[in-house]
Amino acid sequence: MTQSDIDTTTPKYLRNKYALVGVGETTYRRGSQESTRNLATWAINNALEDAGLEAPDIDGMLSYSGNDSTMSPFVAGDLGIRLNFYMDVHGGGSSSEALIGIAMGVIEAGMCKTVAIFRSMNGYTQVRIGGTGVRAAAPIIGDQVHMRAYGWQSAGQLFAPTFLRHMYDYGTTSEQVARVKVAHSKHASNNPKAYYKTRYTVEDVINSRIICAPLHLLDCCVETDNATCLIVTRAERAKDLKQPLVQIRSVVGRCCKPRIDMHYQHGPISTVAGYYAKDILWPNAGVGPEEIDLTGSYDAFTFTTMLQLEDYGFCKKGEGGQYVSSGIIELGGGRPNNTSGGHLCEGYTHGMNMVIENVRQLRGNVDDSCPIGPDGKRQHTYDYSEGGCRQVKDAELSANLGWAMPGTGSAMVLQRG
Amino acid sequence: MLQGEYLGMRLTIEDVDKENLAFFHYCAQGDFRLQRGKRSGLLRYPPTTACPWTRDREYEWVSVEGKGAVHSYVEVHHAIQPAFRAHVPYMILLVDLDTQKGEPSEHEALRVAGNLLTADGEFAPPEVIKKVGIGTRVCMIFKKVSDGFALPHWTIDEEAEQPANPWRYPQE
Fold first, then answer.
1. Domain map (residue ranges) of chain B
2. For A129, which residue in chain B has the nearest alpha carbon?
């Protein structure tokens, strides 16, 4: 390390000192016909191309999985990347933002300079995320008996009592949260990468079959095969790279409610981890929800988007149903959510694609079907009709709200440089 | 070690898992016991290794009345586990025990999970499920897994005064 690499101007909470300089993904498919190792190298290559970086520029790697993926050493070796730091952690949703925070920390500690974060999964053809397939009949041991022996296993089954109680406490309705699917499917119809590009109505959602009441089929996210990658480095370094600067204003990682092992013991059960995370996210960012231009609130289900927007303070407690059904979360509305179509429509990545999308939005260069001009940039029309534009006009600040379960969440505020 | 087949599922509690071993063993005797922290005097569920309020590792097993009201639920129509496919729709209840409700703070309770069964231990049929919602009074029954191993479940408390209209998800 040279003297010029030593930075003595550390800002509070590292605000805007780090940046997301590269994003990349594979296709979103069912039936990838590829190993998770191959998918990972594909996504990382795309992120390197996006950033204008080469293999020797990466010296840190992070990934997360639920024993359904490949590990950093294999992927780094395949790509000819010599690592000064790596770590592969257990986890699903809420890991993207948490690992970005870890990447900032290890770079700040001088352990490495630039970190690639990946999540690679055959979530449909190998280990199904909904708990079907090989996981459905796995032996039930120890603490799992208190849940799985009751047929309480999948994410939908485990999270549903939270939403049901929110309906009881606040009068929230299925029709209101169906508007989340309506919004995200509208966005996906303008995203050539999305697995599902069909626009849906409230009636479509309500009339789809009940999976576990109060959840209908179309309240649930898609299962897909894909890998995704984010590259984190210091903003100072990012200025020499290919893309417009997108800085990290603040990050929260796996913030929990009390009694995370059995969070229903500690109510109100219709309150989620965002209630606690918001008190880290907003003060550290130095902005509040009212200043955010677009959100990426995790849509494992329609209602998870609603609960998080509410508990992070985008509306008053109990008014999440009104918020998501007001039109504000749609492209053309005041604060669109998951403009790629998210987990409900684009593909399931355990949170990564929502971060990728917000990075592209803040660059002002989201990959929709708008024509590419002579300068190589897309000529965004801001016409959000089907098959058209999905760029948010003048997007400066975004918030990602990651979800692992009602009791655990992560979050991040990004800012255009 | 406790082991047994339940609805065709293999359930195992290993010897080192002393807390769960004791819990399910008491259930097999028809005795619902929870750990009570020596320092806090508070009960906790499910079994854990320390008191969440005082981090005290010492406790005693105390018999608790298996009565309460439904706090929330999920009604499964599409089973994920093969063992449950023959039993849809089935209900998973989260029940606020009367004991220690609202302690040590307003929104805390011993919220005990289980399926809605009939009094003789069968999965409740759809016409019974339709009567149950938030607020329904239930009492505990046990389902044998194997010798010395049983699971706590719930059934409608026929002796209790029931709310006129327990809150149910409105779309039937």
1. 2-156
2. B80
Placement of tokens 């204008």 in the chain = A52
Which one-letter amino acid corresponds to residue A45? N
Which residue in B49, B78, B103, B167 has the most chain A C-beta atoms within 10 A of its own C-beta, making it the best mutation to test that interface?
Answer: B78
Residue A120 belongs to a domain with what CATH number?
A: 3.40.47.10
**Best mutation site among B54, B72, B99 for testing chain A: the one with the most A CBs within 10 Å?**
B72
Structure confidence by residue, pLDDT tens digits, A251-261: 999 999 998 87
Query: Strand (E) positions, A289-343?
Result: 294-297
Nearest to B20 among A143, A206, A262 (CB): A143
Identity of the amino acid at A295: T
Interface contact flag, A152 B167, Cβ < 8 Å? no
pLDDT tens string A176-215: 999 999 999 999 999 999 999 999 999 999 999 999 999 9
Identify whether A112 is part of a domain.
yes
CATH class of B2-156: mainly beta
Total domains, chain A: 1
Categorize the per-residue pLDDT at A239 as very low, low, confident or very high, splitting at 50, 70 and 90: confident
Q: Is residue A146 part of a domain?
A: no
With tokens 């998800």, the residue in question is B169
> Would the CB atoms of B72 and A131 count as touching at under 8 Å?
no
Contact B29, B103 (CB under 8 A): no
Look up the pTM and report it: 0.96
The shortest CB-CB distance from B76 to any of A142, A146, A212 is to: A212
Enumerate the β-bridge partners of residue B93: B73, B114
In angstroms, rounded to a whole number, what is the distance separating the alpha carbons of residues A319 and B49? Answer: 38
Does the residue A172 lie in any domain? no
Nearest CA in chain B to A131: B80
pLDDT in tens, A301-328: 999 999 999 999 999 999 999 999 999 9
The range of the structural domain enclosing residue A110 comes to 9-127+224-238
| Residues on chain B touching A142 (C-beta within 8 angstroms) | 12-14, 17, 20
Sequence-distant (≥ 6) Cβ neighbours of residue B168 within 8 angstroms: B130, B132, B133, B134
A8-34 pLDDT, tens digit per residue, is 567 889 999 999 999 999 999 999 999
Instruction: Report if residue A30 sits inside a domain.
Output: yes
